[in-house]
Structures are given as C-alpha cells and as structure tokens.
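Marked as duplicate of an earlier ticket. Keeping the data here for the record.
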Amino acid sequence: MAKITSNESAALEAVKTHRLNFSGLVASNPNYFGNLKDSEYKPVVSIANDVFYEQVTCLGFNPATNILEAVVQVNQSTGYNGSLCQNGSFEYVRFFVDYGAGWEDAGVAAINVHDIAEQTDCHKDAEKPLSYAASVQLSPKSNWCVFPMLPKVRAILSWNAIPTAGDPSYTPVWGNTLDAQIQIRPRPLFLKEIAATVDENVKKILPPQELEQALQIPIPLPDPGPLSVEQLAKLYQPQSEKKATPANSAVPSHRFGFAQLHQALNAKAADPSSIQLNIAEWKNVGLDWQSALTSLAEVDADVSFEQLECLGLEGGYGLERLVATFVIKRPTGYGGGLCTAGSTEYVAFWVDWDNTCEYTYLGTVGVQVHDIASIPAGGLVYSAVLPVNLSNHRNPCNTPKIGRVRAVLSWAVAPSTTDPNALTSWGNLLDTHVQIQPGSKPNYLTPTISILGGIPTSMIDSTTGQTTSNAVFALTNTAADAHGRACPFGGRVAVQGELFVGYKYKLTVQNTGGGSPITLTTPLLLTRWDGTTYTSAPDVNGYFTYMDPTLNIDSLLGEWDTSGDDLWQITLQIADMADNPVLGSLPDVHLLQLDNTAPQAALHLDNNLDCSQFVIGTLLNGHYVAYDLNFGRFSMGSQPYSGPLTPASGIAPTAPLPSVGNPWTLTTKLLPKCGYVVQLNVWDRSIVNSSPGLNNYASASVGFCLQTSL
C-alpha cells in the first residue's frame, strides 16, 4: 500500500473536521461548502459530490409493486456522527421521475447510518462497504402495451442535508446523483381507445353521459401465455429478413428456445419420444436442435442480456427487506414484447446472518421482463425485493451485527434452492454485507406491534401517546416533525408488526376515558411480494391469521379508522389456530393520542374592507388566526399574482378564535390591475392516515380588487 504523504494526511484531517462540524458550519453559512446555486453567501471551502464516505450505486424499479429503489453504499468506519448506541446521522435520497416533460419530484427517503468499526468476516473479506436501500412508492403514468412507458429516474444522495424539494439539479456536499431508466407496467386497454376508431353512428347508440362512463371501463383481457418456439423463431429469425440485424438485437435459438432445451436436459427421466417431437418441431421452423444444445453447453453465467448490479438491505423496525437490482441490456431476447407474457428474471436470496460461512436459502423472487425496441443505451433497471424477518438476529447496540447476503440471478429458470454457488446459463451472483438494526431478541410468541400510524412504537411516548422528539417514519426515516415537536395521530392508523406464521391475533382499542374495548375487524388488503393483492378478514371471534412475510410485505396487522381527540389504548393478543390464547404470552399494549380536529383558520382585511377595491400601491393591512392545540405551520400568499406578503409562513400559532389574531400586510406597489385572493393555509402536527406530509388542514381567504384609480 502506498504511503500517505503529510500533505495528503493534512487534507484528510481537514475533510474529517468539516464532516464532524458539518451542521454547525452550514448553520453559520448556508453556502459554506459552495454547493448552493445563486447564493448570496460566499463559500469558504469547495466540496461537492464527494463519495468518499457514501455513494448511491444503483437504481431499480419493480413494475409489479411500483416501488423505486436506490442502493447506497457506506464506505467508511467513521464519519457518521456516532455509534449504534447514539443517534448517528442520515443519508437522504430524493427521487425524481421524468416522463418526457421534465423532472417531477417523487419524494424523499432516508437511511440512518452510524460509525461501525471495520471488521472482516469468516471468509476474511472486509465488511465495508455496507449496502443499504431506500425506496419511494410511485403512482406512475402508464399506457397500454403497444406504447412502452420508459421514464428516466434520478436519485440524489445527500448526507445529513435533505436535497431541496423540486430541485433535480441539487448538488450535495457528500453524496452523488445517479440516473437510470425504468419500465412502467402497461395498463389495461380502455374502451375509449377502441371507440376512437369506431364509426360515429355506433357511438350514438348510448346517450352521451352513459357513453362517457362506458368508455372509462378497462377491457378485462386474460393474461397472455408464453410464445411458442415457432412464434419466437418468426420473431427473432424472420426468413424474409435480408438485411443484417444489429449485434445487440440478434437472439440465438439456444436463448429463445432455452425453456425446451433446459427441460430436456434436466428431466428426471429421459423421454426419447418427447425429445423426438421437439426435434421435429424445431426442424419444421428451420431450427437445429442439436446445434442449439451444443451452443447452450458453452454458455455459463452469461451477462450479455441481464446482470445483477447491486444488493442491499432496506428498512428497519420489523419491516426489513432485501433488495437486488439488475439491468436489462438488450432490446430483444426476453420472450416477446409488452403485449406478450415475456419471460421471468429470477433472483434467489441467500444469507449468512451469523458469520458461519454457511449460506441459508431465503426465497426466490420473479420479475417479468419483455422485449422493448426503444431500450436506452444504458439499459433498463429493475429490482427484486424479498421481505425478511430479522427479529431473531439482532444484537444490542454495543455489538454491531453485520450479515453477508447473496443474490443469484437466473433468466427463464429458477436458480437452485440448495446450492448457493450454482449458476445457470444466463445470470450472475452478487455478495455484499448489510447491517442489521440493533435490538433485543423477542421472547417466543410474544406479539409485537412494531409500527403505529407509520411511526415505530419505540418512538411513541408510553405516557402521552404522542411521538418523541426524534421520531421518524419507519419506511422513509424522514422526521415526523422537522422541529422535533410531539405529534398526535388521526385518520386511519395502520398497525404493523412481527408475523408469527401458524398463529392468529386480535387487535382491540379502548378509550382511556372509559368505555368497553372495541375489536378491530376492518378487512385488510394485503400485498404479496409480486405486487398482487388479496383480502384478509377476521374470523367470527375477531381473530386474523398471521401471514408469511412474502404474502404480507408491509407486515400489516390492522387498520383503525379513528375519530375524536382522546387518548386511546391499543392491544395486540396472540392465539393458536383454534382461537385459544397462547399461554404465558403477554399482550402488547400501547397508548395513542388522537387529534382529528382541523385547525382554526380565519383571514380578514382590517376595517371591514373585505372584497373592497384599492388603488395599486396601497399597503393592505389585515389580521389572521392560525391556531391548533397541536399547531404545525401556516402559509399565506396572494393569487393570481404574488406580492410581498408578511408573514408568508411560520410555525408559531396565533391566539385562538374569537381573537382577531395577528397582523399581516401586503405591498401592492408592483402588482397589476386585477382581482385578487389572499389565502391562508393552516396545518396541525397530527399524523393523518399514517402518512408523511398528511395533517389536519384548514384554510381561509379574502378577496379584493386593485385598480389604477378609484
């Protein structure tokens, strides 16, 4: 290893100093590191897109679940603001999507990282970098299968500073930006798309209103079956084609006929009659069976069509999942276009959680892929996601737990479930190290609520039922309140927790002010690993059945439609399959403070001048009320043209109604002649519907007109 010079050592120490004091330096000068555009503050040092400590390395998308993933590698053992027994710091990832009209903000997620000493595993391999994953749920624009929807996606990684919302060109100090392209799952064909080609006389059969409703109905088409060898031969080797095809579009028969070849080679017993039929079928369409077998024998872990790129562990608080990303490289060779069944890329996951140098098989996930002629030069990125239950593999925070994980990619046939080293004709394997969130191992069959209303129960105060100052949302690691204030809950509260397959459970809620327990019986819409959904309903005694994590990827146990503003108690009990409570198992009980009342919002011009006319240049004065017991924030602005309005926003409430509230002013000197509305928006801190960014809300407005003269 080359020696570090004194100059290099000094530079490294300077970087460490800047890293250690990052928040304080930015607080004193927002542009201290020179990464802000058009800032009035002069930079002191220039650091931008530095990937020494962390780097986003891959993007992936699952068309079945519409989850966009980013894999982030943490490279160093220090520089993350503390150990696992301390708060550490956050890697923020903001996602963007571009469908062709410009970048759209898709949301932000975060990863909690810590200082973890460098170690080697039982293979004598270094445990760094550690691979993490972060994700957002997309609600993508889609089209039917004839028109592939291939948006660009972007992830901006930034350590300890949230990338600016809506700014796809944000430059992080520590972190980087990564772009890729994904494929959106086609939507059904709608009647209106067929009606566009129908004669106008046919459209007159139904009244206009009924016709419009009918045209919005998707056509229920059955899923297409796989193409036959004859169809694939015509698709990939048309006899009439005279001109040469591009090298990356050529698909040999041992690729598109792989399913039949593999079945014949791996049959439990030789079947000469069946093989004779195969040979005849191939010969009939101009294909040579024996030549294809010879060519296939020479293919071993080929990555010219698809390749695993990254592997990481996402989440915590009982909702961990392994994420493998892979890239599809060619326009053809995947069994047909988006209007066909295409083919399947299988990813098998293996783990060594306890550093034994022995892999344990966890499961296999399949992702559908297709021929797409307009595939970009860099390919299309996909992700395979497998939920995992790590509750029995945790260590205390003073003993970091690092696991070694492996993903094996195989096209068209599932990988081995007994040999972690086995590779098939097309695909590859990838190893990495991941960090398991610390905690205590649960007692056997102890029912556990891990998350309430989107917040880990460890971050909900056991006395007040509100969030703690450091509370974050479990799935995104973003703050429950940016200012560390306690938050109550409202709307639909999702209950998530550990799954005990082979047992049942019951959820009850009770107002601490009095009243009988109420059993939660709302049927649950659960999501499988492949994105399909199904309904789970309780039995006659109110008990739900625990499902396997792959059949309930969100670990959803219940949904509680709340009302009122009282303090409630929620209880989880476990039972056997005959609804008998498990002896010796204590229920899990938590308090939750509700707030379903909207804030107070009132806005007026002084002297009863609402809806009056004013001369341009008049300084308008008024008062506003923005109040809630759990006040969050307010904002004010003028429309259709924005003028200097004070205050424009804030996090401090006014006195409640019937007070007149606080003063506001609007300078109209630069505003054009027009009718105007000033609108006040008020939010509280209640976490509504278990979702980040959703709070109880109220608004008020006042109108006026500006004239050149009266």
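See parent ticket for discussion. The mean pLDDT is 91.
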